[in-house]
Structure formats: C-alpha cells, structure tokens
Amino acid sequence: MQNNWSIAQTQKLFGYAFEAISQNKGLMWAFNKTSKESGRSVNSVRNYYYSQLKMFELVPRLADDLKIKLIKSGREQFELFDPQEISDLVKKILVGKANGSSVRSTISVLAKGDAKLALRLQNKYRSMVAHHKDKVQAVMNELAEAGTIFYNPYTKMLVTEATPDNHKKLTDYIGALNEAEAEGFLTMMKKLFA
Description:
Number of helices: 10
C-alpha cells in the first residue's frame, strides 16, 4: 500500500466528497469508496481528507488551481462554556433532580427544544460530575449555604439542609469552654488519638 497521494487521487477523493454531500450520503460514503479503490484504510482516507481540507481552507487558491470543489464544512466553531454558565447548569440540574425531574427532562427545558444544545448541556453536566468533583462540590456548597434543597450526584441523595461545618462546630465548642473544661477536653482528645 502506498502512502503518497497523487493529485489525481486527491481530486477523486474530493470529488467523491462533493458528490456524497450533494446527494446527502455523508462523507463516510466517500471515504469507504476511496478506501476500496485505493487499498488504504478508511481511517487513513478520512485523516488525509481532513488534513487536506484544512490546507485548502487556509490556501483556497490551491484548491482552485487543482480544480477541487470544496463543500461547506459541517464542522461548527466549538463553543466553550464560561464558568458561570457551567455553575448555573449544574445548579439547575441538581435543583431540578431534587424537585423530581430527571437530568434529561431538566436539560430539555433548558435547551428549549434544541436537540444539539441539549446534547451539549448533557455532555457538559456528565463531564463535570465525572471529572470536576471539586467544582460540583463548590456548587453544592453554594446551594447548601443558600438553604436550597438539591440532589447530590455522588451520594445519590437529597440534601435538605446546610451541610454542617464540623470544624466550625468544634472551634465554637472549644471556644465556649472555660480554661479547666478546655484542658480536660484536650486531655481526653490526646488519649483518644494516642
């Protein structure tokens, strides 16, 4: 199998791609057809197509000189979520779950019928829960401090009251003791942890 692509092979590949999109067949049709004709793997054909497409998009005159018709790229600009959007999304889903809605139904309401947006929101939420526990925990802490009932995706339970701050409770308890009580408490703690 040869790795070098001739101009004629490149023109043929892009011709198949143009035909595929024009006839609503999808680019895989063009990649499969080229793969069978050239003996290259489908992945190799696809990778070559996208590398050449990128070059032709950067230097459109080259495609014109080679008489290659380019199709409008179906690839859309990747939109990033800003931190506030992420926080709001996680909050709305956790509160929605606490109110009896599923993740999908909450996302459906947020996406207002836009299936693409719904998929983006769902993927972002799932990614946050799986890979950014610290950020999800920060959102849950905000909800707890505000007294908002929410669903904890890690314990799979509803949180109905502010999470107790045990460190603060311990500090307040020790601070309220007189000197003798504090000394007795610290002696007891030393024995427990010795």
